[in-house]
Amino acid sequence: MDPEALPGVVVMGAAGRMGRMLARAVLDSPEARLAGAVVRPGHDWVGRDIGTLIGQGPAGVAVTDSPLDALAGAQAVLDFTGPATTVEMADLCAQARAVHVIGTTGLSEEDLRRLSLAARHAALVRAGNMSLGVNLLAGLTRRVAEALGTQWDIEIVEAHHAGKADAPSGTALMLGEAAAEGRGQSLPQVAARGRDGITGPRTPGSIGFAAVRGGDIVGEHDVIFAGQGERVVLRHMATDRMIFARGALRAALWGQGRPPGEYDMTDVLGL
């Protein structure tokens, strides 16, 4: 197939750890072409070949700090940046009718409202975690929570590298949403975070979160169902960030030709 006939994919935050992996995933794929690589304004990568910079050899794609220029002629955007950048990019994707795949975490309610508005005009795929295993874990969490009910306490423990800026992780919140949905609850109303000091007994029916930060931990998530005399623990451990990059690219390809709307990885994976 003519490479120019393949869906063009733009990678946001291409100089970051996740951005470089996303660029590698696209360059390695026979189903997509790298149409653009975007970095923050004034970055010293601007104007240089992204393939050379990430050790893949010349790719013929110069790094830019202009998302609008990168999006010209592209059909999808992979975005694991920050909330402000993601919201801005959502508006551009809506105008270009490009699939916007979002792995950004730490989004506020206002950010999510803006994304929903953008999704009226283009397909938007957002997930706290793009891996197949984690999305299976979310499905299991929902079913176990539904089966066990509020008589069992739920605690979600997540661990990530020392540089992660937000807590709980987007994946932990996704698992919390799955647990709350299984019980017929609203997560904001039952979430318990940041316990410290004399907190008193645990509130029945609450869903607790705990965050660990250290070293180079890629991502570990435990969903603990604690009952009287027994516990059920569901666990996922990520050892290679490429699982997220491959999942994001799969979402971008899946989104081609989809009608405008908000989707997640359960849609992409048919779960």
TrEMBL record:
It comes from the Bacteria. It is found in: Cytoplasm. NADP(+) binds at R40. Keywords: Amino-acid biosynthesis, Cytoplasm, Diaminopimelate biosynthesis, Lysine biosynthesis, NAD, NADP, Oxidoreductase. InterPro entries: DapB_C, DapB_N, DapB_N_CS, DHDPR_bac, NAD(P)-bd_dom_sf. One of its GO terms (cellular component) is cytosol. It catalyses: (S)-2,3,4,5-tetrahydrodipicolinate + NAD(+) + H2O = (2S,4S)-4-hydroxy-2,3,4,5-tetrahydrodipicolinate + NADH + H(+); (S)-2,3,4,5-tetrahydrodipicolinate + NADP(+) + H2O = (2S,4S)-4-hydroxy-2,3,4,5-tetrahydrodipicolinate + NADPH + H(+). Its EC number is 1.17.1.8. It is an enzyme of class 1 (oxidoreductase). Residues 133-269 form the Dihydrodipicolinate reductase C-terminal domain. Its main location: cytoplasm. The active site is at H160, K164. (S)-2,3,4,5-tetrahydrodipicolinate binds at H161, G170, T171. GO terms for molecular function: 4-hydroxy-tetrahydrodipicolinate reductase; NAD binding; NADP binding; oxidoreductase activity, acting on CH or CH2 groups, NAD or NADP as acceptor. Pathway: Amino-acid biosynthesis; L-lysine biosynthesis via DAP pathway; (S)-tetrahydrodipicolinate from L-aspartate: step 4/4. NAD(+) binds at G13, A14, A15, G16, R17, M18, G103, T104, T105, A127, G128, N129, M130. Residues 9-130 form the Dihydrodipicolinate reductase N-terminal domain. Catalyzes the conversion of 4-hydroxy-tetrahydrodipicolinate (HTPA) to tetrahydrodipicolinate. NCBIfam families: dapB. PANTHER family: 4-HYDROXY-TETRAHYDRODIPICOLINATE REDUCTASE 1, CHLOROPLASTIC-RELATED, DIHYDRODIPICOLINATE REDUCTASE. Homotetramer. This is 4-hydroxy-tetrahydrodipicolinate reductase. It comes from Pseudoroseicyclus aestuarii. The gene is dapB.
